[in-house]
Amino acid sequence: MLKIEKMNYWYQSKSEPLYHAIDLAFEAGKLYGILGSSGSGKTTFLSLIAGLDRPKTGDIYYNNESLKKIGLTNYRNQYVSIVFQSYNLLPYLSALDNIVAALEITNSQHKNRKTYAIDMLAKVGIDENLARKNVQHLSGGQQQRVAIVRAMCCDAKLVVADEPTGNLDETNSREIIRLFTQLAHEQGKCVIVITHEKEIAYACDVILELKEKKFTQVDKAPN
Q1: Where are the domains of the chain?
Q2: Backbone phi, psi, residue 59, to 5°
Q3: How many CB atoms lie within 10 A of CB 119?
Q4: Fold for domain 2-218?
Q5: Which first-to-last residue range defines the signal peptide (predicted)?
């Protein structure tokens, strides 16, 4: 579904490349965990595969078509859902209306969007009373769960998440990973999770570690 060829990136203030000619491929139906230390370039990598920025060299392909040809705005609107670390919820709307708005913008095929959104929020511990509250009246952990559900509800086949369990307790973290796994295995989506938590990464199908400007696949320990 997603292919990266000879990708490199550097910040304007630095001459040293952040990556070393990255070649990667991500398949539909799998949950990927991206590990890396602080400053290794994990979040920048997410911004590139999510179409928020362009590689300096190399290219990214979605279903064998270059993002340059698709267009970044079109790519973000139609093909990818993003869970931001900073939530990026619309502050003047309720949790429920944030999700319904996303479903409308992306032309979701779900017929009863409000009922669907309420059901999905309930799966992560946001009941209907909380769902109808302005998001600014929710805790950080609750806002994070709303942001995750918003990405899950859209029809995009690629879901990318930046530290999605960072403000969640162990129980909710497990539930989020279960839902991400369900999205990949049952709905055939490609789900890519950026995390610094090994427990989260090791719950994924494929683990990639970003270290010394390149990615290496990490083998899971046998059960």
Answers
A1: 2-218
A2: -150, 160
A3: 13
A4: Rossmann fold (3.40.50)
A5: none
* Residue 195: closest CA among 160, 161, 168, 163: 163
pLDDT digits (tens, 9 = 90+) for 152-185: 888 889 999 988 887 778 887 888 888 889 889 9
Q: Is the dihedral of CA 133, 139, 143, 145 positive or negative?
A: negative
Asked if residue 95 lies in contact with residue 135, where contact means CB atoms within 8 angstroms, the answer is: yes
Q: What are phi and psi of 112, to 5 degrees?
A: -100, 85
- Decide: 61 and 49 in contact? Cβ < 8 Å: no
Query: pTM of this prediction?
Result: 0.86
The pair of structure tokens assigned to 80 is 């990818």
Provide the residue type at 109 as one letter: Q
Instruction: Specify the 3-state DSSP secondary structure of 52.
Output: coil
